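Entry 14. Two folds queued back to back today. First construct below, sequence then structure tokens.
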Amino acid sequence: MASEFAKIVVVGVGLIGGSFALALKAAGMAGRIVGVGRRPETLERARSLGIVDALGGMDAATLSDADLVLVAVPVAQTGSVLASLAPLLGESTIVTDAGSTKGDVVAAARSAMGARVARFVPGHPIAGTEHSGPEAAFPELFRDRNVVLTPLAENAAADVASVRRAWEACGARVQELGIAEHDRILAAVSHLPHVLAFALVDHVAARPGGDKFMSFAAGGFRDFTRIASSHPEMWRDICLANRSALLAELDGYGKVLDALRDMVRRGDAAALYALFEEAREARNRWLERGGV
């Protein structure tokens, strides 16, 4: 039985792009997967690890006969990548992305692709680890995780369905959101936590005697700051791309911290307990619903 996608091109063969390739291979959905990227050594590692079958470039030989192209690069690079590949796409090639922000990506796609933007189906797999590079990729990354599609008015229903099937073959739960709604929600539940983790590590480690403080850190610090090991370039770009929504969340979180500070200053045990209990119950409800 023929694979649904005879040829897939993955631009960016790190954790997300590499895991997408491996998952589709495992599902029998891909006939041939070609890797494209900035660094030849990274591409060679991806090929040696069996993530991709061949290496390609931003050229017609690589792109013109592709059924599906996944762009899995830091969001600030998406526009230039789409501008490079747009004139090389075949008539039936579908393009999607894995960017954590959508407003900037869609604006870049419209600018870069013109009328061809109809073949671009924006997406975001809400999955990852604190690791990066081809070595971090594994086929189960998206299993039982959410993937959000933010389709454009110009997208053909068949193209959206095709991208949906690709992610579902990876084991993901696919949902659709509006672009602004996606960015507002992800600012709260993804972008803000990463900023807080980076900030806490910097707060402790950068002070005089920071190494000594860090030497006494244990499970709580480790769990809270795990994501501060994430790729700095990617998270720098996400913060700037979604700055309006992120600033709103930082302001809101700042108000909660101010209230907590006031409770501690007053020695208000009842207020602290109430806030902690409410937060614990909310988290437990989330975990009972799957917590992914």
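Second construct, same run, same settings:
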Amino acid sequence: MSVIKPFKSLFYNIKKIKDFEKVISPPYDVISEEEQTRLLNLSPYNFTHIDYNKEKPSDDKANNKYTRAKKTFTQWLEKGVMVQDEKPSIYFYKQDYKVVGQKYSRMGFISLMELADEEESKVYPHENTHSKAVDDRLRLTKALSANLSSIFVCYSDKHKKAEKIFTKHVLSTTPLISVEDDLGVKHQLWRLDDESLIQEIDQSVQGQQLFIADGHHRYKVAQEYRRQKAQRKSAVTGNESFNYVMTYFTNIDSKGLQIFPMHRIVKQLPQELDFLEEYFRIDKVKNKDDLSILIAKAGRNEHAFGLYTLQGALLLRLKNRMVIDKYIKEGSKEYRKLDAMILKSLIFDRVGIPSDDIEYTNDINEVIHKVDSHESDCGFIMNPVKISQLKSIALNGETMPPKTTYFYPKVLSGLTVHKMD
């Protein structure tokens, strides 16, 4: 049984679109309201017009953001703004980027992934989903009958089969798309339609445990869309397009796979944090710019995070790991050892910080700015989750606390679209 399946992707027509920087967009779930407005105004063909359009006060059942997205999408297809590939293909996707001045390159491929019933599936999520977000994406999927953005899945390929095929057969050809985003990440997309090579890649993925990095809501939507579609048919062959979902695959063993930490910004502290010495060794950090380096160094052997307030920066290191089992009762051993759970249980729950008073960001400078400008009382600087933790927790059937991981760089929206029958 195949895990991956080539498909005839829809993508922007290079004869119609000359400036790809103006039409591609980040995934909808990382776009702020301000960024949404900027993208919508950037071009009438920016992908946000169908993937993440704005609601209007006058919206009703007949005219809303989903019907407008469908109308826009239909017009793009009629005008040839987006065109369909001629042959079923998989699409190699290379991203070149820098982190703290160091160059990285992440290679993967976009194809369809077969969906299976939960008890048979080897796809493992690691984050909870929210019903409101699932309903939103499901309504959009139904309106357009399309996967607009890829699910981001990691698999293990120690022999680097896909990379070798890419290097030998694809890299020397001209990419379909080459574009640089606002963060300086270079995105390139190539087509591979050779059936024998695709089969080799498929064989390297078969039997694998697949871990969802990004796109938990899209995966949940694909499962629900499949269930509803199957219910309406008297017989299901398994070949129907709703049995598959557009997915980006990348090697979990690759050095180009980066997980950024997700820091916590606390708008208002209900009480003082004078109890911290009960649990943590506390060191003052003279230069706030050194905080992330010190946290990373401490985090190699112990649980550590930073605290930033108007009084300065502190490094917090857990004194005794035995307090984890004493105060954190839920979940497996791996789950209880998450820094996010330790922070929540030992500090947030004790102080009584409501979830609405916590903001999340992967940018330490945003934490510092929010505190220095008196917009927030404090910020907690975190270390990133390790790949080994993600795998263990996912295989346990558990899900991490919200906003625990941030995979970088993001897979752009608008590069490929899977139009279902």
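Quick look at the second one. Residues 216-231 form the longest helix (16 residues). The first strand starts at residue 4 and ends at 5.
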